[in-house]
Amino acid sequence: MALPYDWSEAQEHDLIQRLRVIGKYLAQGEDLKTAANLANNASSHAAYNWPAIATAFQRHKQEHGAGITATTWERKYAPVVQAMLKLLQGQRAPSNGANLLEQAVRQWELGSRSRQIAAQNGAAFLRYAVERHEVSARTWSPPQSLTTVVGRRAPTREQYALGDSQVIRLVEALEASTSDEARRWAFAVQLCAVYGLRPTELFHLRFRGDVLWCLYAKKSGGGTTKPRQLLAAPVMDADGTRMEWLLEKRLRAGEPLPEVAEPKMAGDRMGRFLRRQGIWQQLCGEAEHLGEELVPYSLRHRYSATCHRNNLPPKYIAEAMGHSLETHLRRYARFVNQGEAAAAFADAFGEKGAGKSSASVESCAKVL
User: Fold this and answer.
1) Contact, 76 vs 117, CB < 8 A?
2) What's the predicted TM-score (pTM) here?
3) Full DSSP string of 235-287
């Protein structure tokens, strides 16, 4: 009996998969000829070169659309795609796309953001296979909704926004340390609080003339975070006086920031350092008293809360923080000043506004 494959390394994977399918039918009591015919007609993963499709998918993601980086592929796509390939090569390989995706994402916490990303990227791989490599849509298309694949977990606590007095206490405690590392992190804390920086952005600061910019550019499937001019939301003391930390002058002078192996790991590194500090532990207790969680991003949240409290338009705050208005409102709607909206409507449609509108209508009527 001959199988429809060349005796070559290129077809080794397909041959092994076909033999596994034949073996399953033999184990069920079929004779060799019947098992081979059933395997030939079976709608299974054996008919497709999944590793080659995965390689083509990686090239497609990196060279088309927004063009993700190699790092993004390794961190966000490769883990789930490799998990899917491993399952397809196993003795009990899933027989359809929905089961394959559900099994591949089990390594991530139920309902977590990381599991959501894995499910989205795994589904993108299956759709690519169907659309570009003639894989059976009926069998291998991912579920239309990923809700059940991602699952749900207990609601997480709101992330805390540090107040100015708390930022000052944190900075003073770090600056009082004899540790050079602590003083460097104090500088980083000041920059994140005043400019609303992500920790990784600390290592992408540059001057263009007299203006401080963040040149961080984050590529993702949804687009690219653009470089932006940094706009300060100063930290104020108890008397309402601006803290004169001279941040731009210190940056120009080359004051050192904390040492991190890679800028993208700055958030984790900051978190590990701060959690060891007594002052941070005190602030954690203050956040927990309100049912919220203190994290390094609490410095960035302070920036957003301060800007909203000073009635800056959300669009401008979003631009200053380096994300879209949609993203900003989704994450920071709790800081939006509802009183400002009420005042605007009162001004537009209140008694004086209504009078102006009526007068305008009457004037138009006379002209007509």
Assistant:
1) yes
2) 0.57
3) -B-TTSPBP---HHHHHHTTPPPPP-S-GGGHHHHHHHHHHTSHHHHHHHHHH
Q: What is the pLDDT along the chain (368 residues), one digit of tens a residue?
A: 677 666 766 566 667 767 877 887 788 777 887 777 766 655 444 568 999 999 999 999 999 887 899 999 999 999 999 999 999 998 888 889 999 999 999 999 888 889 999 999 999 999 999 999 888 888 899 999 999 999 987 667 899 999 999 999 999 999 999 999 999 999 999 999 999 999 999 999 999 999 999 999 876 544 567 899 999 999 999 999 999 999 999 999 999 999 998 888 899 999 999 999 999 999 999 999 999 999 999 999 999 999 999 999 999 999 999 988 888 988 888 887 767 667 767 877 875 544 444 444 344 334 33
CATH of the structural domain 159-341, one choice from 2.60.120.200, 2.120.10.80, 3.40.50.300, 1.10.443.10: 1.10.443.10
Domain ranges of the chain: 43-150, 159-341
Other CB atoms within a 10 A radius of the CB of residue 332 amount to: 22
